[in-house]
Amino acid sequence: MLLLVNIFCVYLATIGFGLLVNVPKRALNMGGLVSVSGWLVYYYINTYISGYVFANLFGTFVVGLLSILASRYKKMPVIIFNIPALVPLVPGGQAYQVMKSLAISNYALAKTNLIQMVFIAGAIASGFLFSEFLNQLYIRWRIKKANQKKG
Q1: pLDDT digits (tens, 9 = 90+) for 31-54
Q2: What would the pLDDT profile of 71-106 be if each residue is shown by its tens digit?
Q3: How much is the pTM?
Q4: Structural contact between residues 132 and 125, judged by C-beta atoms closer than 8 angstroms
Q5: Could you give the CA distance from residue 93 to residue 73 in angstroms, rounded to a whole number?
Q6: CA 10, CA 125: separation in Å to the nearest integer?
Q7: 86 is in which domain, residue-wise?
Q8: CB of 74 within 8 A of CB of 26?
Q9: How many domains, the chain?
């Protein structure tokens, strides 16, 4: 039951953020589904397989791939789906803990949380990089295949 509540909250958070940044209304539902899919991958990996860094990496990878597919399906830019779908994976909790630790002069804890936050941000960037790399490989393969049919 708690998982269903989390899925619903992830979907609503994505839709809400999409409304805040003026995502077109016809892309909101698809963006919410992309976000929930990425978050489910994150949740599964973080809970059953590995830690938060790999969970963020693979969750963002799924968000990146599904955003590319959604953008082709809806004939809209990829960023319309990427940015709102990324909201549940952003390390806001770690950023808050860094600032809180600095405010109470607990520099060792601030450093630990900052390192976690940097690793998560790097995993998010890498996930998008890998999904775009896979997309470019697919595009080149399609072009090569089309050229072979011509020649």
Answers
A1: 999 999 999 999 999 999 988 899
A2: 999 999 999 999 999 999 988 888 999 999 999 999
A3: 0.88
A4: no
A5: 34
A6: 20
A7: 2-150
A8: yes
A9: 1
